[in-house]
Amino acid sequence: MQYNSASGEFRAKDFSLLHTYSSGQTLNFLGEMTTGKLESLSFSTTSGIFKVIYARAKGRQEGIVKWSYAGMQASAAESTLMQMLGMHNDIKHVYKQIGKDKIMARAIRQFYGMRLTKSDPWLAASCFIASQYNSIKRIRQITIKLINKFGRKNGLSVFPSCKAIAKASEGSLRSCGLGFRAKYLKEFAEAYSEQGMDYLYALSYEKAKSELMQFNGIGDKVADCILLFGYGKTEAFPIDVWIKRSIEKLYFKGERQSTNAIHSFAAERFGLFAGYAQQYLYQYARQNNIK
DNA sequence: ACCCAGGCGGGCG
DNA sequence: CGCCCGCATGGG
Fold it and tell me: What are phi and psi of A14, to 5 degrees?
């Protein structure tokens, strides 16, 4: 892969690249993740590509992030990177807000430094429209195929634009592995290819969610993922099977709860950072295989 | 061969 | 409301 010479580094505190990028929220990897003391990964956004190497200081929750990029101006690249790594949130404050019970405190301890990554709305929408009734491994394969097929830009493979997907045929989208979701993605792209998705930033969480849920293929869970990972609306609380099972088991003695009941519980318990609590619970349930 | 996957839409009682 | 079913596709 070709990178230009633009690069930089910064010191990251209370940060884990491994936990952040192995927790199912980022589906646009290009390169592999290495584990251990030195971690690295490559990913693309709609504007360019990044490579990140993280060297952790021994025995401390801090280290040095070295990064390089291509396809963007320096200032845009830097702010995009910070959001993609989740460095824009004050995580100590978040921990204080959500770490009120033993379960969440344990999850935070186990996955200390895991951040919520914020991409752009379109990228998040594409990835999570592709995610329904699918496995994380396959979603990643699909996004890589979309990048390679529709995301060529000045010799780089970036995540395809909304307009590029709107112009693509349903059949060509299916050939990327989207299956029955191809139609959903195309319809969504067509709806936003002119006006863009940025106007939803100004709407309340509830308003924006009901707008997104108008589309075929976007229900309660996918809408929450888009709002959380695409817009940074941290009150969103995506409820997938893992979250539903573990909330019922860990907070309701195994009693079954409706989706609305879980939303109410999460809003009351975790407030404006419910999305963070969700991410820690999701990772905790999966890594510890809590069913 | 068989099962399942960070759900959703539609139809039923 | 709650419940049940089918769904494209590929990895385990």
Answer: 50, 55
> Is 90 exceeded by the pLDDT of residue A2?
no
Cα A161 from chain centroid (whole Å): 17
Answer for the pair A3, A69: CB distance below 8 angstroms, yes or no: yes
What is the DSSP track for A82-106?
Answer: HHHTTTTS-HHHHHHHHTTSHHHHH
CB A33 within 8 A of CB A40: yes
pLDDT higher than threshold 60 for residue A5: no
- Through-space separation of residue A35 CA and nucleotide C8 C1' in angstroms: 33
CA distance A88 to A79: 9
Strand order in the sheet with A7-13: A7-13, A62-70, A49-56, A38-44
pTM of the full structure: 0.97
CA of A176 to C1' of B8 (A): 20
Q: Which nucleotide is nearest to A244 (CA to C1')?
A: B6
Nearest protein residue, CA measured to C1' of C10: A138
**Token pair of A113 as six digits:** 């430094």
**Using CA atoms, how far apart are residues A264 and A121, in angstroms rounded to an integer?**
25
